[in-house]
Amino acid sequence: MRTEAIGDGEPGGDAVRVLVVEDDPGIARSLMRGLTRAGYAAAGVDTGSGALAAEPVPDVVLLDLGLPDTDGVEVCRALRRRSDVAIIVITARGEEGDRVSALDEGADDYLVKPFGLAELMARMRAVLRRTRPAAPEVLQHGPLAVDLRTRKVTVDGVDVTLTPKEFDILECLATDPGRVITRQQILERVWDAHWYGPTKVLDVHVAALRRKLGVPGLVETVYGRGFRLGEPAGGVDRA
Length: 239
Ligand code: CA
Fold this sequence. Notes:
By secondary structure, the protein is α/β, with parallel strands linked by helices. Helix 3 (about 70-80) runs parallel beside helix 4 (about 95-105) and helix 6 crosses helix 8 (about 200-215). It folds into two domains: about 5-130, Response regulator (Rossmann fold, 3-Layer(aba) Sandwich); about 140-230, Winged helix-like DNA-binding domain superfamily/Winged helix DNA-binding domain (Arc Repressor Mutant, subunit A, Orthogonal Bundle), CATH 1.10.10. The chain contains eight helices and twelve strands. Bound molecules: calcium ion. Calcium ion binds near residues 23, 24, 64, 66 and 67.
């Protein structure tokens, strides 16, 4: 089983179009893979001129400022002059001046390398809330769909009712499928920034979440580390 992108089989559908402007092939590849898995329609270019020539016009541009042909700040200014596309600039450490210039030229937000996919997705959702208020925010992973705006969860199209805590745990995992989210990260995000209590409470909620989702192998325990969204082992057997 593979993770499907929303909009698969319906090119030009409702998927949010993201243009990755990045000349480091490794970073570009992993960004595109992560975005596609999360349901975005991702395309990539490795130059500033490529960014300005991109068709169709994307909804979001992830703009590396250190490009081989053009100053990224110039690209940002040119993009902003012609459209209100959401722009998130990506900079390396030590490029603070460029970052400030890019924000002055109309960038919506910025990320400093290295950054995690989960953080990028959160920034993108925040920016899209401003530029595309009606944008669907659905994370799709195999049979699972998690709507971040309405907090509705379905498995194979069937509604699953979760408690707020169960939903929050699932959101942590579904934002970056396959990546291990540590117990501490989940406790901090779902319960409190400084959780010092017993972590048994997390296991109780994860057990309930698994039972309600009814997909063996979907919520995987990674011993000694945490949890991740895995590839479901078999069919659906909802309790
Ligand atoms: Ca670069």
